[in-house]
Design brief:
heterodimer, A: about 260 residues, B: mainly alpha
Chain lengths: ~260, ~240
Amino acid sequence: MADSQKKKRPVPEAGQWPDKLLVPVLVAGVVLTTVGFLMAFLYAAPVDGAEVNGFQLIGSKLVTHRQLLSQKIFYFHMPVAIVSFVMLIAAAYYAIRFLASKNQRYDTCSRVAMEISLLFVIGTMITGDLWTRFEWGVWWTWDPRLTTYLILMLIVIAYFVMRNSVDDPERRATYGAVISIIAFIDVPICMMVTRLIPTSIHPVVVRQNGMAPDMTITVMVCLVGMLCVAYGLYRLRFRTVRIEERVEALKEQLEEE
Amino acid sequence: MAQQNRQRLALKHPSTFAQYRTLLSKDLRQEFRTKEMVTSMGIFAVLVIIVYGAALALTAQSIDIASMSGGLIWALIVFTSLTGLNRSFSHEKEQGCLEGILLVPLDRSVIYLAKATSNFIFLALVEVIAVPLFMFFFMTTVPFAPTFGMIVWPLLLGTIGMAGVGTMLATITANTRSRDVLLAVLFIPLIYPLLYACVTATTAAILGSAQWMDLYTMPLVMAAGYDVIMLLACWVLYGFAVSA
């Protein structure tokens, strides 16, 4: 019975049309992110921080506020966080597709999206921690938003721990799909907790005064660049995993014949 | 003759509620006979309290312990429920009970509801013992705030959520290697929002300061929202997890 099931299982495809886009998208992403990096320092105006006594000469300018150089991390922190959310949504979407169809291909999609998401979640944690250290003077604070992001990271790591401790591929795929859907449900709750608990000291950017146009453009360039990088990485990883699966399937076929 | 046979074989299809009741009473009867889960959880709770005794030996001032006790009670509950949830599927796996249940033509979500209910009952039973014990050991110097009785609601909502999510995760981890560790790794991050809300509400009720309502209502609403969302999600997804 196991043999007949194996024969019925289609051999994974060797590649798809989006693979042709892979290199241009990845290059575009890297270029855009670099441009965004330069824009953050050269184009976007510095943001006023704490007020100084009267006027003070900093650099060669007379200013009333200390200029926040550390605020530049924002141009990378926010896009990275958004991309990690987007990849998490993709993982949950493919998880639902998998549960609906039981097609192993969607499980691979979901897993690879989760891997890329983990990469960007860790990126968010690192950039966020740099900000925390320089602006709030501590390496870590149990601010609800930081905490919920840490929790999100732990769930994504737990997802991979779980995958590693199940042997049967069918079962592993189903459990992975269930966990990634639950992790996806955790994201809105994470957002809600950060909005509803009043003690948060995390700056809420869009709600306060909104962003100046130069800031918006810089953030958008970074965001589009990082989305391209994430998509390129996703396709690259997906193709690798898929071809590995194809080799395994072909080997099994040869052994049977 | 064939007609007669068919009539004799015709079975009454039990209602969903009857199936639920049967499954639940199976769990309860098993527990009453072996007393395995409640005993191990109860002993574990006492052990955690002893560890607290050593850890808090130098913080005897009543003001410290009053503001910390909400969190300590919840840490106690989380670790105790972890040990209980780990055990909750061991009977099913060891004696092939789960395969038997899965052969019965019933909706998978009924299994989930029955299992979550029995887990909820065991957790609540242990809390009824552990929370007064905690108060006896640590809170006798603390003057009781008039709002103290309100800790029942966060305890109730927290237990419902933990039993619901925990049942789902225990089902998943029962089929994995290193399941004890894995359950903790999955369980603690996933219930974090609930834990946070419940600790805030419990502490507000224990302290009972003038503005306690501000710190009490919102977390309670959030805990209730978490329960509804997570239980619905687990209820929908349980069929996939248990049949895999």
